[in-house]
Amino acid sequence: MRNCRLLIALLMGLAASELAMAQKSPTPHTTRQPKVDPQSGLVIAEGYNMVAAHCSACHSPSLITQNAMSRERWLETIRWMQDTQKLWPLGDAEPTILDYLATWYGPKTQSRRPPLAPHLMPKP
Ligand code: HEC
Hints:
There is one protein chain. The chain contains five helices and no strands. By secondary structure, the protein is mainly alpha-helical. The chain is elongated. Heme C binds next to helix 2, helix 3, helix 4 and helix 5.
């Protein structure tokens, strides 16, 4: 019985701290978090199907999700893969793929919390 109460208290504490974290998050409540495909880690949005089809054949999609590039840089990366890595022409899918990449993996995407202020970093 005692253990059970302890567990409940623990769980309530967890819930409370999660709530506090959610409130501290800089993203306003109105901004909906995009859905992410658990397998690829890619955001599920317009163009997702094409990106999943064309861009996960040779390497893990994590190469995409860990990048943040402008549309031009994404295009350069695609051209580079086409010139040197045997990536096929993307044809009609290319603009959609570029829109998707620049939207969800663009330079301004805040996919992580901002870095800690220097004075909050642990001492080396
Ligand atoms: C035909 C094979 C192939 C396909 C298909 C492919 N890539 Fe690549 N890509 C590569 C290879 C090879 C590398 C280099 C991998 C490495 O360095 O380990 C690479 C690297 C990358 C990198 C990292 C570039 C860097 O500078 O580090 C990104 C980002 C990337 N690909 C995105 C994409 C996207 C977006 C697509 C879909 C349009 C795609 N890839 C489809 C072969 C491919």
